[in-house]
Amino acid sequence: MKHLNDSQIDQLKQLLHERKSELEQHFDNSENTTEGFETSLRVSTGELTAVDNHPGDLGTEEFERGRDMAIDSDLSDRLDEVNAALKRIEDGTYGIDVTTGKEIPFERLEAVPYTAYNVDTTPEDGPVSDYRPVEEDVMTPPPAGAGENRQQHAGKFDDANAWQAVESYGNADSPAMSTKRDVESYDELSSENNVEEGTVEPYENFTGNDMAEGNRSVEMTRAERRYVEAGEGERVAEIDESVEDEAELARAAEQAAADSGKRSSDE
Q1: Which 3-state string (H, E, C) describes the chain?
Q2: Which of 4, 103, 135, 161 could pair with 197 in a Cys bridge, judged by C-beta atoms 3.0 to 4.6 Å apart?
Q3: Are residues 15 and 113 in the same domain?
Q4: Maximum CA extent, the chain
Q5: Smallest Cα–Cα separation from 223: which of 193, 183, 251, 196?
Q6: Residue 19 lies inside a defined structural domain of this protein
Q7: How many CB atoms lie within 10 A of CB 84?
Q8: What total number of domains does the chain contain?
Q9: Which residue segment(s) compose the domain that 13 sits in?
Q10: Domain contains 180
Q11: Are 97 and 117 in contact (CB under 8 A)?
């Protein structure tokens, strides 16, 4: 500390004590308020319970708690650095770079009074962690393998239609408990027995578009017929109902559309 005079040391020591007082006051306030980490989730949020809530309902509170914990961790490290700097003043080693033994300029100490390094020797933050959730070890990340049977070659079960797969072996439903009254077999008792596999909405089975969200198309398939017969939409073209093959259905639809366009031009 030979490069620092008594006035400079007193000034830096005062800065360190002020910073220490601020940090200690922060932790005292955290312990004496309802926002402290010792407070339960029920008390801090006012919720009677979090058991029946969707995780998203407490997303904001969870984020803020994690943020506060990160801030406290950083401030705790800063308090340790301040205490270490005060001890170096008592030991007579304050203002000396702990790595090289060179003197730290007063201007730098005035800006960062708790530092123990020169600018060029300050340890850099560690590399950004490449840690990934352990769940990814047993899941196929979309869109690389999303969809039905996406894990069939990996020896894992992660099918997009897992419920339909396990329900095919039966469930606890009975005619007395079923919400459906017009069923003729136990296979029809399921509330989702008519759900199309691999899709969310029924019309997704016969509609599509390209990657640029253009060239929208409607395929004339049995799924489209069932959709129209259920009163969900109107048929875009009349086709021969006797055709059974899907490819022939598509050709019939194209021919029907062409005939419709020809009639319009003739008129």
Answers
A1: CCCCCHHHHHHHHHHHHHHHHHHHHHHHHHHCCCCCCCCCHHHHHCCCCCCCCCHHHHHHHHHHHHHHHHHHHHHHHHHHHHHHHHHHHHHCCCCECCCCCCECCHHHHHHCCCCCCCHHHCCCCCCCCCCCCHHHHCCCCCCCCCCCCCCCCCCCCCCCCHHHHHHCCCCCCCCCCCCCCCCCCHHHCCCCCCCCCCCCCHHHHCEECCCCCCCCEECCCHHHHHHHHCCCCCCCCCCCCCCCCHHHHHHHHHHHHHHHHHHHHHC
A2: 161
A3: yes
A4: 104
A5: 196
A6: yes
A7: 13
A8: 2
A9: 6-118
A10: no
A11: yes
Domain annotation covers residue 37: yes
Q: Last residue of some domain: 59, 87, 118? A: 118
Contact 42, 50 (CB under 8 A): yes
Of 76, 93, 118, the one marking the end of a domain is 118
Q: What is the CATH number of the domain that holds 53?
A: 1.20.120.910
Note whether 112 and 104 are within 8 A (CB).
no
Domain assignment present for 51: yes
- Separation of CA 178 from chain center: 36
